[in-house]
Fold this sequence. Notes:
By secondary structure, the chain is an alpha+beta fold. It has 11 helices and 9 strands.
Amino acid sequence: MANLEELRKKIASVRQAIQSESSGLTDTKTVYELRKSFLDKTGRVGQLMKYMKEVDPSQRAEFGKNVNELKNWALDYFNSLDEKMRAAELQRIYERENIDITMPSHRRQVGNLHPVTQVRNQLIEVFSGMGFEIYEGTEVENDYYNFTALNTPKDHPARDMQDTFYLSPEFVLRTQTSSAQIHVMEEKKPPIKILSPGKVFRSDDDATHSPMFSQMEGLVVDKGITLGDLQGMLDVFVHKVFGESTRTRLRPSYFPFTEPSVEVDVSCFECGGKGCSFCKHTGWIEVLGAGIVNRKVLQNCGIDPDEYSGLAFGIGIERVAMLKYGINNIKQLFESDLRVLNQISDRQ
Ligand code: DAH
């Protein structure tokens, strides 16, 4: 017969085993495994019951009670250990996934449109708001459209104004978008209101000239068109592009395809017209050429100059971009140096 005192020692040693074997555990999985090894049907706590038959019948109830107490204690013990492990695991997850929301984030680089494209788009927006349609001509043009029809026949001194790239005696790289005027007037009868943006080419190369640059031609033909209409439209353009307080002034000039011809100046947007180094102390900056379409040009396109009149203007897009963004060498617009181009934007 087993002595109850000895059996109680066994019960106590199982309790101790639970405490010592669980002392180094750090997660719920190992606690679960250990709990099983003690509390499963075949676990070490249950195994104590096999001593029952060795206990004196008068002490069996007492022994059973002691084993049950151990079992209840073990259940509580493992439950609270499991809770502790869960909390510790959660804490480890929090630490691992800790995000420092005060850290600066990676900023994505946002690209810019090229300044020439920005100005081109802005001009298109301004003029299409006034009802202009876009007509895109071709870069290779024949001599007739680039010069002759624009009242610049061969040997006309005005041909010297534009250093032309001849591809053959008949074909040129267009020197001006004005050639679009002729195509449009041949194809359409008035009223005409077109804007023709595009690349033009001249054998010219210095700080303010490039062999390739861009122009935007405007042409309006209708009954009773005057220089007043021209100035009104250009005022809208200048206010939008250079600022509301900018004023315009027309100066007499000469182009073979317009009569009268004018150069359009804007009041200096650096000094407001007082005079500074930007406007060479004149208070004015030249921005484009324009005029009333020469009667001969209308006639060349089969439009009766006694019935209709027209206005035309030609804007240098790089020139506007250089003025607007304070660029003093046209090469900066063509070198594609992102350090320069990234700084030139209307977007803040
Ligand atoms: N085609 C001229 C040039 O390239 C610019 C120009 C001047 C266009 C007067 C026009 C105009 O339509 O009326 O220098």
